[in-house]
Amino acid sequence: MARAISTRRKLTFTAIGWLVGFVIFFPILWTVITSFKTEGEAIASPPHFLFFDWTLDSYAEVQSRSNYLKHVMNSVIISFGSTFIALLIAIPAAWAMAFSPTKRTKDILMWMLSTKMLPPVGVLVPIYLLYRDWGLLDTRLGLVIVLTMINLPIIVWMLYTYFKEIPGEILEASRMDGASLAKEIIYVLTPMAVPGIASTLLLNIILAWNEAFWTLNLTAANAAPLTAFIASYSSPEGLFWAKLSAASTLAIAPILILGWFSQRQLVRGLTFGAVK
Amino acid sequence: MGSITLEKVSKSFGTTKVIPQIDLDIADGEFVVFVGPSGCGKSTLLRIIAGLEDATDGTIRIDGADATREAPAKRGLSMVFQSYALYPHMSVYGNIAFPLKMAGEAKATIDDKVRGAAKVLNLTDYLDRKPRQLSGGQRQRVAIGRAIVRQPKAFLFDEPLSNLDAALRVNMRLEISELHHQLKTTMIYVTHDQVEAMTMADKIVVLNAGRIEQVGSPLELYRNPKNLFVAGFIGSPKMNLISGAAAAKENAATIGVRPEHIGLSKTEGPWQGKVTVVEHLGADTFVHADVDGVGPVTARAPGEFPVKHGEQVFLTPEAGKIYRFGDNGAAL
Amino acid sequence: MATLQTRSAARLMMSPAVLLLFAWMIVPLAMTLYFSFLRYNLLMPGMEEWAGTLNYHYFLTDPAFGTALLNTLLLVGGVLLITLAGGTLLALLLDQPFFGQGIVRLLVIAPFFVMPTVSALVWKNMLMHPVYGIFAWIARSLGLQPVDWLNNLPLFSVTMIVAWQWLPFATLILLTALQSLDEEQKEAAEMDGAGPISRFVYIVLPHLARAMTVVVLIETIFLLSVFAEILVTTNGGPGNESTNITYLVYAQALLQFDVGGASAGGIVAVILANLVAIFLIRLIGKNLEA
User: Fold this and answer.
1) Where is it mainly found (chain A) (predicted)?
2) A178/B79 CB distance under 8 A
């Protein structure tokens, strides 16, 4: 393991690494920079990279013109709400699958996975019509329900793989010590699984925050989360780049930070435990 | 307060019968060891007694009352697991207090009992530590502490020493024996190590393939093994089991002689052989020899026995210490 | 490993998740299937009638379907190609020790966390715009004619955007796999006289094969349903040039209100996705046993 790496080699890779990283990150960086420009600066040619009058006008503008905070709230409620509800449903299910497996457990897990592979257009029409009839179109509740359901399989799977790593003997010890099932889950399993539960939570908030099929198709002005709100910038061509950038920066910043924290879990969650 | 009776207990997983049928009486205060090779069903049997596993059929009585369908917590038994199964997120104190908390005892009572147990087990200085900050032996003691505070009707030990290194294992073996003398509570102890069984048990239950081969005190099993399996399993080094012409002479299918019941000589004896390996342990010498017409035989000589690989030795099985077994493996 | 009591408790605790998901999957899917055999347009309420397989006939013979199918395949294939090749190179790069490795790693995975509508709009406006975009500026600086990406190369442009979003995913998974490679195995190969290239071909690549399969399968599942990126950049156009199956079904349902036709399209999409899903489920199922 510990072998000397020549400084030259290290410097070469440093240069290549940072160049590649910069290129890949550039669109995001550019968005952030543009968000501090005026609309005129934003479309200046040749583009101004750093030397311009930095201003927060676009941020103020975004809020005053379109009640931006309402959409932020929608995003927060929808992503956090759906994740928490799914977690409440998933923890007992994952407990059962991990600690009391039967011959059918594997089939059930596989079947849950398969629901995740159902393309959304396959059920777009009936969901749309049902929602229309039930008055759920363009409501936060409607989206919370959809996102709970589409993330439930991932949550069950992730929790299952985390729970599997907890030795069953510890839960049995608690049973011997007189803990009821509820106490076993609350006092023993959950505290032990906190890291796993937290990363499951994190990843699914990210996924729900960025979900852009159902949020676009089932909402209008009212319940639109940021994904759908920002899509509304697609029509007026060319004129609102600074504001688009400001809105985008705010929409991606929190999730980018969460995402950076959860990179490891991301792999595990999105591959259903196939790659750890 | 702590007798356990198994009546016609059997266990199947799907179609495989792990335990065909077992009857067993464990008296109050007894130290019973279940011993057998891995996969013999000894742990399953313990888990059935604990209530962590259902018996497929049969009845388990604890102090005479039917406990077969009782939840583990209701049986009044404590268990020490092979992996210790300590709660990693709780301190030593929290671990030992957990069963009392679950039983809804008052804070002051809990505190008294936990500190009392910690004192007995030399854990007082470690009460605030988390399990991962403890050594293997300390963890083991915490697991025992967690088991004793409940004042159970019986303790169940599931191979509790197998994760410890050899020196520590001997120490803990003594501590557990001592604990039994102090508490005088029934203990059921599962192990695959016959030395543990011999040294600790009042009563040994030898299991093989889910069947009880023999039940008895350590010396009973040593002196009168009922069959080939017990003969081969109890005692170290293993009993020499010899079949063929040498056995036929004794009117048996197989004869057995313990290594310690074979005299060694460089000059004379009925069996003549060539030394293959010599193990000098200081107090004893184990001589493995290839005996003409008999096969490989191990003999144990007290003290030092000066012999080298390849040399000739003569072996003399002690009269009256030769075990005879029939075709079906049962002792004759 | 449990008693009757725990087993029945387990069944009880599993049932909400199972029942909810079952309802979520079966009810709408059955409705889609049913609608797909109806003549049913939201603009003509009350006129529903049995249409047999007519909707399928129309959907499958519509030239737009052929285009959309081809576009879907090109989009999925293109993104897979870029992300696998790029992801392997990036993973190898990030596996090397260099200054600021951790930060570069964060920069590289960042695009994955950008919501699809944002990345699509940023690329469309600020990078690909034929007059004010960065690409146009670069082209002019090099004395070239700027390209009107989204009008002239719509599918290629969408592919680029989607590949940028998924490159981090491939990189991260391949990097994880790379780092799980036993160091001793590489050292053993080195002792056996394998040079860096043969080490890569005989040791590293086979080790990555499984992770690559996972990347291909999972990306395929998601890429078959690319939607937002098309909606906010090209609206499937010009013409049908950047319409994929998902977008085609969406257009039929929510732009033309043809419930029957859209449902038939939805069922076709489900069947296509299942072809991939079967492989993925087998692979993960195998892993579950290990």
Assistant:
1) membrane
2) no
The answer to the question of residue C75 being in a domain is yes
Q: Do A122 and C9 touch (CB under 8 A)?
A: no
Whether residues B71 and C5 touch (CB distance < 8 A) is answered with: yes
**What are the phi and psi torsion angles at C262 (to 5°)?**
-65, -40
Q: Are A189 and A38 in contact (CB under 8 A)?
A: no
Residue B42: name the closest of B219, B234, B189, B217 by CA.
Answer: B189
- Identity at C237, one-letter amino acid code: G
pLDDT one-digit tens code per residue, B284-327 = 999 999 988 888 999 998 888 888 888 899 999 888 889 999 88
CB neighbours of residue A193 within 10 Å: 22
**C172-192 pLDDT per residue, tens:** 889 988 888 877 777 787 787
Residue B189 lies in a domain: yes
CB neighbour class for B120 (10 Å; exposed up to 12, middle 13-18, buried from 19): middle
Q: Look at residue B137 and give its three-state secondary structure.
A: helix
The values of phi and psi at residue B287, to 5°, are -115, 120
SS3 B284: strand
- Give the whole-angstrom CA distance, residue C223 versus residue C216: 10
| Those residues with Cβ within 8 angstroms of residue C215's Cβ, 6 or more apart along the chain or in another chain | C83, C84, C87, C169, C170, C173, C174
Number of continuous H segments (helices) and E segments (strands) in chain B: 9, 18
- Whether C199 maps to a domain, the answer reads yes
* Beta strands per DSSP E along chain B: 4-13, 16-26, 31-35, 57-62, 65-66, 77-80, 154-158, 186-191, 203-208, 211-216, 240-243, 254-257, 262-265, 271-280, 284-291, 295-302, 312-317, 323-325
Q: Which structural domain, as residue segments, surrounds residue A52?
A: 7-59
- What value of ipTM does the predicted structure carry? 0.84
> What CATH number is given to the structural domain containing B201?
3.40.50.300
Q: How many structural domains compose chain B?
A: 2
Collapsed DSSP state (helix, strand, coil) of residue B330: strand
Residue with tokens 């390849």: B310
Q: Give residues with Cβ within 8 angstroms of A179, minimum separation 6.
A: A187, A188, B73, B98, B102
Total domains present in chain C? 1
CATH number for position C269: 1.10.3720.10
The shares of helix, strand and coil residues in chain A, as percent rounded to the nearest 5, are 75, 0, 25
Q: Which domain does C254 fall in, by range?
A: 56-289
Q: How far is C5 from chain B (nearest CA, A)?
A: 8
Q: Which domain holds residue B248?
A: 237-325
Of C29, C114, C167, the CB nearest to A252: C114
Closest CA to C2 of B62, A169, B7: A169
* Domain tally, chain A: 2
- Do residues A247 and A233 touch, judged by C-beta distance below 8 A? yes
- Taking alpha carbons only, the member of B84, B57, B63 closest to residue B75 is B63
pLDDT, tens only, C24-81? 888 888 998 888 888 888 777 777 778 778 888 888 888 888 899 999 999 999 999 9
Peptide bond between residue B237 and the one before it cis (omega within 30 degrees of 0): yes
User: In this complex, is the C-beta atom of A47 within 8 Å of any C-beta atom belonging to chain C?
Assistant: yes
Instruction: State the DSSP H helix or E strand holding residue C160, giving kind and residue range, or none if neither.
Output: helix C154-179
**How many Cα atoms within 13 Å fall on the side-chain side of residue C109?**
27
- A30·C280 Cβ contact <8 A: no
Among B102, B113, B158, B190, which would you mutate to test the A interface (most chain A Cβ atoms within 10 Å of its Cβ)?
B102
Q: What is the dihedral of CA C245, C250, A211, C172, to 10 degrees?
A: 10
Rounded distance between C-alpha atoms, residue A274 and residue C258, angstroms: 40
Query: Domain check: are A240 and A146 in the same one?
Result: yes
Mark yes or no for CB contact A149/C11 under 8 Å: no
CB distance A123 to C29 below 8 Å:
yes
CA distance B199 to chain A (A): 27
Chain A touched by B153 (CB under 8 Å): no
